[in-house]
TrEMBL record:
One of its GO terms (molecular function) is rRNA binding. It comes from Paracoccus liaowanqingii. Belongs to the universal ribosomal protein uS17 family. The lineage of its organism: Bacteria, Pseudomonadati, Pseudomonadota, Alphaproteobacteria, Rhodobacterales. CDD domains: Ribosomal_uS17. This is Small ribosomal subunit protein uS17.
Length: 81
């Protein structure tokens, strides 16, 4: 089964080796038939502490690292640009 890759913005980097990423998705409401924005926050593993607040990052699913961390940051050049 392929791993999910999401793209979002870093909203917090206060914890050691952890960032909080806010991922926004848009979908058409089934009844109202208008585009609705919905966001969700994910905690991701950042081993080098290289990402700061406001950075656009891509995260990928991984095995559980802690109680709340199930994602890790992709460390390719496209993610940090």
């Amino acid at each position: 089964m392929p791993k999910r890759i999401l793209q979002g913005r870093v909203t917090s980097d206060k914890n050691e080796q952890t960032i909080t990423v806010s991922v926004e998705r848009r979908f058409k409401h089934p009844v109202l038939h208008k585009i609705v924005r919905s966001s969700k926050k994910y905690r991701a593993h950042d081993a080098q502490n290289q990402f700061k607040i406001g950075d656009l990052v891509r995260i990928v699913e991984c095995a559980p690292i802690s109680k709340t961390k199930r994602w890790t940051v992709l460390t390719d050049e496209a993610a940090s640009a």
